[in-house]
Amino acid sequence: MSIGNPDMILDFAVRLDGISLRYDSSEEILSGVDLELKPGSFTCLTGPSGAGKTSLLKLLYLALEPSRGEVSLFGRRTHDLSRSALSLLRRRIGVVFQEFRLLDHLTAYENAALPLRVAGQRESDYRSDVEELLRWVGLGGRLDAPPQQLSGGEQQRVAIARALVNKPDLLIADEPTGNVDPDMSERLMRLFIELNRRLGTTVMIATHDLTLIRKIEAPVLRLQHGLLVRDVEFGSDVA
User: Fold this and answer.
1) Which of 28, 118, 159, 165 has the highest Cβ tally under 10 A?
2) Domain residues of the chain, as ranges?
């Protein structure tokens, strides 16, 4: 089974089996977590601060390894993959970090285009697409601005554009609307939904914004005391 073929028919995009996570000798952050996300699904993740949302997302984009249990992405168990195979998997994942992680010496356009540049694509092939994406997130007039000249909300939008620019198979977003106003929050969420619907991208978004969750009407999971549970308030039907 080739992990480089995005057209494969899979039963799941993400599967966590009995996942537990602890840092050093501390108590478990996550305990016995089971999760399955079907290809093309859109799921929200909630929970109080310190519940482990960011840790769970790091497991999904392979920045952490579990203390116990098994992580599978796109039909492959990740624990027995080679470094090169893991690298190929990561290229299929877009991540929106809480802390933006923009490069200060690059412009907004260059930061957003960075994944395509690293992948070896020619700028002449992607420039118009990157510029269009930045216009969509409200930064059409800020293409040449470095991060230090952008507000926190503008930096967040550059980070979101960077995560979406290569049309990932899996999008992981950690509080992606935490630094923008309500109108922009809805606009960005519509962008995620459009990506999900048009390209079949599997999306998981961690957010505290319950008002926004209600507008999306997506299945919701809640992390509570290290356990992942269905959020009955929102009628989640995620397995």
Assistant:
1) 159
2) 8-92+170-239, 99-167
58-69: pLDDT as tens digits: 999 999 999 999
User: Residue type for 1, please?
Assistant: M
Give the residue among 55, 59, 52, 58 at the shortest CA–CA distance from 79.
59
* pLDDT value at 56 more than 60: yes
Give pTM, 2 decimals. Answer: 0.84
Number of Cβ within 10 Å of residue 110's Cβ equals 19
Instruction: Please tell us whether the domain made up of 8-92+170-239 is placed in CATH 3.20.10.10.
Output: no
